Amino acid sequence: AGILNFCANNYLGLSSHPEVIRAAVEALEKFGAGLSSVRFICGTQSIHKDLEEKIARFHQREDAILYASCFDANAGIFEALLTPEDAVLSDELNHASIIDGIRLCKANKYRYKHMDMQDLEAKLQDAQKHRLRLVATDGAFSMDGDIAPLREICQLAQKYDALVFIDECHATGFLGPNGRGTDELLGVMDKVTIINSTLGKALGGAAGGYTTGPKPLIDLLRQRSRPYLFSNSLPPAVVGCASKALDLLMESNAIAQSMAAKTQRFRSKMTAAGFTISGKDHPICPVMLGDARLAAVMAEDMLNRGIYVIGFSYPVVPKGKARIRVQISAVHSDEDIDRCVEAFTEVGRKHGALP
Ligand code: PLP
């Protein structure tokens, strides 16, 4: 009783929003538990088409295609799009699903140092010999809460005639003035060609993923993308949740703003207490501790004080960079944030992380 969850990707608190829940129940009642089919046989209902149209409108793109997860969207895109004559240039800290997706394709692979634009430029120069170049990056990186330098990436992409792909799982719904994501935050919505994102985090938290971008690309994915072609259609209740979540976000950005204010409160109070918080302005707030055991015992002691957080250590993060990753949500009240900071301060002092 009374335990506060500070480790979910439920950034906007929409997984428990009454309208989101009602939309899921209505879709379940109207369309049934599931379609028992992949999309191209009998797995497409009006709600799937509507959601794809809504996603494209939300991101101001031409079209969108749904997947069972963003892991699937990342698994399906590179192989469908790139040939052995092409090249893909990937940030070394990209999410595992991007790495796996790239593994599946036959393009020439370049890995550039994390957010290092000099290294990306050198790799782009080297990749000029290939037919097509695709730069792939997380928009926001989930371990450090840092944001890809998309302006610089897009400038380099323009200079070296490359396309830009971003994974927006930790940005969709809340980054940027209208919550459109990292491309909106950094003013490059017209320069990023392809966006993959999830419905399983800020957009209701149920499940599902998608690609949005130019119509010919989405048409190609419908013909060739294996996780789309050979995996079951998203269940109606899940579609209902995501669709309502997008409606709410397109009506107002008040929820995203409230989450941003709470993030600010947490980051500034924790910094004042003496902790080092990685990243900047993102609701992923990694409390950097260094030592793996310290992160584990502190997380355990936080739970004893009613705060649910998780310690991350090697191999999930580099050796010596253990941390407790705190995630702020719009459903946290100011008092919840303060309770979390107080618990961290007590536990930090007890275990020697603070003087
Ligand atoms: N990409 C990133 C950056 C993620 O953090 C995740 C989930 O952890 C995924 C992709 C996979 O998303 P999904 O849970 O929809 O498969």
TrEMBL record:
Residues 3-344 form the Aminotransferase class I/classII large domain. GO terms for biological process: L-threonine catabolic process. One of its GO terms (molecular function) is pyridoxal phosphate binding. It holds the Pfam family Aminotran_1_2. One of its GO terms (cellular component) is cytosol. Its cofactor is pyridoxal 5'-phosphate. It catalyses: glycine + acetyl-CoA = (2S)-2-amino-3-oxobutanoate + CoA. Keywords: Acyltransferase, Pyridoxal phosphate, Transferase, Transit peptide. Its EC number is 2.3.1.29. It is an enzyme of class 2 (transferase). Belongs to the class-II pyridoxal-phosphate-dependent aminotransferase family. PANTHER family: 2-AMINO-3-KETOBUTYRATE COENZYME A LIGASE, MITOCHONDRIAL, CLASS II AMINOTRANSFERASE/8-AMINO-7-OXONONANOATE SYNTHASE. This is 2-amino-3-ketobutyrate coenzyme A ligase, mitochondrial. The lineage of its organism: Eukaryota, Metazoa, Chordata, Craniata, Vertebrata.
